C-alpha cells in the first residue's frame, strides 16, 4: 500500500506542526536534514519568519534504506545565541539517520538544546522525534518525490 | 503589483528548469542557497535522483533586501567527483548574494565548474544566472512564503 501525500495536505500540516512545536519550544534556529527535510524546513523558516535556517547532510549509502554506512557531514556553524534548535526531517523511517544527526549535533554543541520534528513516523522506528504530526502506516509518496514525474504533470 | 506564484506552476517549472539545465550541463551535485533555494533544490535533487544535495547560507542583514552586510557561511564540503555543480536559488533580485556565493564557492573549489539556476530574475539584477526560467516583472509572493499564512489556509 502506498499513500500519496500532496501539497494541499502539507501546507496545512506545516502550520499544525509549527503550532505543536511552539506550544513549548521556541527555536532560534532550524536545521534541515538533507534532502528530506528541505521543503518542510523552508516553509517553517518562513512561517516563523526566521532567516536562521541551516542544513546538515545525512545519507545512508547502500542498496536500500537500512543498509550501508551512515555519513553525516556539513555540520552547520550555529551561533552562540542559538540555544534552542529544531532539527527537521520529513519522516522517521528506521530512525537511524535521525539518531546519528542528533548525536553529532549534541557533540558539536553540548550546551544547546536540540529538539526534533517530523511530519511522519513509523511505529517501528528506533528513534522517536519530539514532535511527530502523523503516523506513517504505509509507504508514503511525498509530493516532492512524485509530482515532477510523468503522469503527475498536468 | 504582486504576483502570486503557486505550487501547480512551480511543479511544472521545476521540470522545465531541469530540462533547460541538463541540455548542456550534467551536475553531479546541487548546492541550495538558504533559505530561498531550498524547495527548488529539494525537487531538483529528486527529479535527477541524486542524493548529492548540499546547502550554503547567504544572508543580508539589514532593514531591506539591499542593505546590510552579506554573510556567506557554511560552505559545503564537496567531493572530488563533483566536477559540475549547480547552485540554486529561487530568484535573482539584486544579484548581490548570488554573486557573493558564486565567488566564495569558486575560491573554495577552483577546479570545479559551477553554474547557477533560478526560477525568476529581475532585469535590473547585477548578476545573470546561467539558467533563468522566467523574468520577474513584479514582486513575487512565492507559495512557500504565503500559503501557510491566514487566508491561504483552506
UniProtKB/TrEMBL annotation, chains A, B:
Keyword Glycosyltransferase: yes
One Pfam family here: Pribosyltran
GO molecular function, one term: transferase activity
Record domain Phosphoribosyltransferase: where: 21-147
Transferase among keywords: yes
InterPro entries reported for this sequence: PRTase-like, PRTase_dom
CDD domains given in the database record: PRTases_typeI
Keywords attached to this entry: Glycosyltransferase, Transferase
Protein known as: Xanthine guanine phosphoribosyl transferase Gpt
Organism of provenance: Helicobacter gastrocanis
Primary gene name: gpt
Amino acid at each position: 500500500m502506498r499513500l500519496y501525500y500532496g501539497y494541499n495536505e502539507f501546507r496545512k500540516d506545516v502550520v499544525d506542526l509549527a503550532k505543536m512545536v511552539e506550544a513549548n519550544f521556541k527555536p532560534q534556529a532550524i536545521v534541515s536534514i538533507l534532502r528530506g527535510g528541505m521543503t518542510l524546513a523552508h516553509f517553517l523558516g518562513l512561517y516563523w519568519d526566521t532567516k536562521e535556517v541551516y542544513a546538515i547532510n545525512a545519507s545512508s549509502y547502500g542498496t536500500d534504506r537500512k543498509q550501508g554506512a551512515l555519513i553525516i557531514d556539513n555540520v552547520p556553524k550555529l551561533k552562540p545565541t542559538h540555544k534552542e534548535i529544531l532539527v527537521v526531517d520529513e519522516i522517521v523511517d528506521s530512525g537511524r539517520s535521525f539518531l546519528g544527526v542528533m548525536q553529532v549535533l549534541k557533540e558539536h554543541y553540548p550546551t544547546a538544546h536540540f529538539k526534533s520534528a517530523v511530519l511522519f513516523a513509523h511505529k517501528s522506528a528506533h528513534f522517536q522525534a519530539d514532535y511527530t504530526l502523523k503516523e506513517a502506516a504505509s509507504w508514503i509518496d511525498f509530493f516532492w518525490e512524485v509530482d515532477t514525474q510523468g503522469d503527475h504533470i498536468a
